[in-house]
User: Fold these one by one.
Assistant:
Number 1:
Amino acid sequence: MKLKNILIVVKDIEKSKQFYHDLFGLDVILDNDGNMILTEGLVLQDEKIWKGFLGKDIIPKSNSCELYFEEQQIEAFIEKLEKLYPEVQYVQRKITHSWGQTVIRFYDLDGNLIEVGTPV
């Protein structure tokens, strides 16, 4: 068995597609009417579909998981993030851990937690 994809729930799939393309260079592999598979295995699913499957409310900013990306040029990434999405809500602005890795944490447009860090 292998892990195939990671799915996140989004309110506006087109805006989210643009967000993940702008910041991380992810492109659409498959667009299937409310389900969109991006490169690197990230799946965007329309909130209405997800609610229909689960019959439960979506809890944005639950902080129970995160998408983790690595970026060698963290300063350039932060500049791009702040230029393209100045309204982004940070969980942690740039910090450097005791082991030397620099990271930031912020929410995407729908409250999904993202961490971007320098390679370990």
Note: Helices lie at 13-24, 47-54, 74-84.
Number 2:
Amino acid sequence: MNKPLLNKYADQTAMLVAIDCIVFGFDGENLKILLIKRGFEPAKDQWSLMGGFVGKGEDLEAAAGRVLFELTGLNNVYLEQLKTYGEPLRDPYARTVCVAYFAFIDIKKYQNQLSDEYHAEWFQIDEAPQLIFDHNEMVEEARKRVRYKAALHPILFELLPQKFTIPQLQNLYEQVYATRIDNRNFIRKVTSTGLLIKLQEKDKSGSKRGAFYFKLDKKKYKAKFQSFLNFIPNPDQLLG
């Protein structure tokens, strides 16, 4: 490497690269978000997304997976890059560029794996406390991205337990889109996807008649991921 090139590198401002994870969960009734109490200054003891810095020799995907594992003890969860945030004063301590990811986990399956070290707590998405820095902006943009993608791909199944009922699935969609969905139309659309396998077992917690459990056909899920029958019309409008 020649000297002029080295000088160009030396003249650049050093920056930190951080990862923040917007972790969504569904408990069968409510869509929730996982938050932590920040353990250091600035903004110590305030509510925050789970985050960390990209390590030496670590790529972005690996860093995001590590951050999520440290919080939840989970590997192989749905994780997708959202956006890069680089406003110069976003972190009052140091110039920090943040790459945000969103993730889906099943609350009931993994609630006991949450790390006590980070004082992690689930909050209903519309009742979450004020967050530090630009984390509220990240959450809102993640919600918009999820709404848009869920209209085109069956990603919301990642939030469900291994067996679930149609009413639970419909409730999840209603939670994500903050709207009521016609019951008969929803049942027709979801059954026409061919993604569900009906089980003989029923959930009778809500009524004596009960509702049949279903499970996801994983092979069809992967095959149809890019050609999902829209549940929500005009998904482009959801970006506004």
Note: The longest strand covers residues 16-26.
Number 3:
Amino acid sequence: MSNPIKLDPIDRQILEILQTNAKITNSQLAQEIGLSPAPTLERVRKLENAGIIKSYHATLDTEKLGLGVSIFIMVSLSSHKKNQIMSFVDRIKQIPEVVECHHITGTGDFLLKVLTKDIASYQELILNKLVDIEEIGNMQSMVILSTFKDSKVMPIL
């Protein structure tokens, strides 16, 4: 793990603002943080070049896109050899319904987040894609009934 980059209060303020409104103009951002546009842009570029700001994204409404079912799947692999782990990861990356894949500790090896149109689509995903991944030893599904917090904003400590 690399050492965190030192941020001053203005850098922190920039990051907080950009996380909630990445479409803000540089002049609006400058006004909010109390600097002129040139040093504001310089600070944003510094944060981008340092890799702190990795990219800018639009947050989409999954239900309006017809993706009404969200599922977490805890996956246990049948073996923990490096080549099998990498093979599993490569296969998972090819499945568009898997929107997150985390290597975890505990009773499982990976935690996947899956988005599908409905339960029938989820069953099809299991039967036609996931069961074909021979590295999977066991899967446990958890359908998300409600989400009470889904923050895309990172705490700037």
Note: Residues 69-143 form a domain with the Alpha-Beta Plaits fold (CATH 3.30.70.920).
Number 4:
Amino acid sequence: MNSTELNLYAKQIKRDLNQINGQKVMIIGDLGVDEYIWGDVKRISPEAPVPVVDVNKQDARLGLSANVAANVVSLGGEALLVGVVGNDSGLETLSGLLKKNNVSTEYLINDSERPTTRKIRIMAAEHQQIVRVDFEKKKFLSDKTAQQLLSTVRENIAQTEVVLLQDYAKGVLSESLCQEIIALCKAQGKKVLVDPHRNTPLSYYKGADLFKPNSDESIILSGLHFDELRQPEDMMHRVAEALKSKLSGGDIVITMGKRGVLIYSNGEFSNLPTFARDVFDVTGAGDTVIASLALATAVQWPLVQACAFANFTAGIVVSKVGCVPCGRKELEAFLEPFTKEN
């Protein structure tokens, strides 16, 4: 893509941006909280050969599907977040963060036998992680909880045009639940987007309208074996074709980091470059991409324009540290240089 095409997409997005205001996206999947504890390390503990961290700052952020929901809202849409939480202090933290980010807790399912997922990272200095502590249960939902979740989807699906299956392989999305949701969406004319996990069989996602893996995930899920760092472009085309065949159709959008995005739709391939100016942390970039694609799908933007939109928003979040959503004003400022006449 040359600079003229790039500027054209930026202008189209800026022109159409208000179309996504208030668009509802239903997000179904694993959700949780990312917690950070920063401090200084000046000594080793007398109790064991481990560093002692003198805490000077703490922070909690929305993680997993909750971060996708935050991105949908921060870009101007409305998120219907469907997931499973425990009855614990993690739920209190999560609920507070969702409220702060204008994401409703109305569609969350409580299961007292599962903890609310939390990931606590102990950090020395700004970027040096000492240890991570996880509170989670990687286990499929009980039949009762799965039926509660499916009922919640069925009762609220009429509110949205787009349903997003956000899979982090923590047990919320089983094959039967995914297929029931996809069938329900097909029956009601709703688009289904999938952000997959590399360890989840493709059969879970069969019938989805759009499938968005990153390059590593795409190669693993395709069943083909290539050296990701050395593969020529035509090999990624073969990966996309294999995915599309196994999924029985649907568009394929593969995010490839600094190599941009590969799109496979209607038998044709397209490539978009990355638009990031500075890359500090890619954490959460995939969440921003799928949130952007969902909003663009809701207003029926052409797929290439939707992917350009997602690439612009991802270019913003990779310049930040941790899972931080892309703000609407940030996006407008980011687009400005691309929309100026040459």
Note: The longest helix spans residues 303-317.
